[in-house]
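Hey, I was hoping to borrow your eyes for a little while. I'm sending you its amino acid sequence along with the backbone structure tokens. Take your time with it, there's no hurry, and the full record follows here.
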Amino acid sequence: MHTIASNLWFWFGFLAFILAMLALDLGVFHREAHEVRPREAALWTALWVALALLFALLLRIFEPPGTALTFLTGYVLEESLSADNIFVIALIFAYFGVPKRAHHRVLFYGILGALVLRGAFIAVGALLLARFDWVLYVFGALLVFTGVRMGVQGEQEEFDGERNLAVRLTRRFVPMTPHYDDARFFTVENARRLATPLLLVLVLVEITDLAFAIDSIPAIFGVTRDPFLVFTSNVFAILGLRSLFFLLASVIDRFHLLRYGLSLILTFIGVKMLADHWVQVPIGLSLTVILTVLAASVAASLIWPRRAADG
């Protein structure tokens, strides 16, 4: 079967584009630390969605039928799963009282780390699936377990930094000041170079993405085994996560039933992977299921607000 993963020019071109966009983001539009307003966040979100759709259009033109739809399915899946990530990051920022001017800097470097980590995860996952077919069933079982557990647990627990192992280890081994210094990760106090709490927050953001990658990477392999489509759909979702955070962070708690929708989506993808040998689910049907469940959970959250649901 033809796969664009075998064409190195696709890889080089895509990576060059991503590096150029990141350089433009940090070096031009966000050279000075500032609070990202909803209007700016909405424009960046629209830009990343438009770029993802343009990329899908190019796949539709230059690649075999179904490639673009597969990419879009993976992109929508990864973008929807990132909603839980946004909620956790918002809890971390609130717990440590991170200045709003520093939010973009933390998320920017957090996303750089996420790109490297997810790239490594995807490479390992693709290698395992290529050599051992049974790994697909392990991934499927993991997703079903995660989906059921997410549905049973319900809403995300509050973040408790004092009990968090990563927080305690970082504070133990990294000399740190309790004071912020604008958007800097390090500062100098009494002739000593110390880390600011912003570095601790960055560590937690990276660990958070690593935890979510354990679910999202197997999920995307349930849509396609093409490493290029897996990587590109992940990258577009990750790059859009930052602007999506600024757009939704203040209202994400209103979508209190979204977690149950994500639970159903993960379970669906897991069952799809487990039944892959016997039942071939069309990619169009997978995309329809994901979009329907996502829209239904968001609509239900708005129709039945948290007070009504809790009461």
The chain has a mean pLDDT of 84.
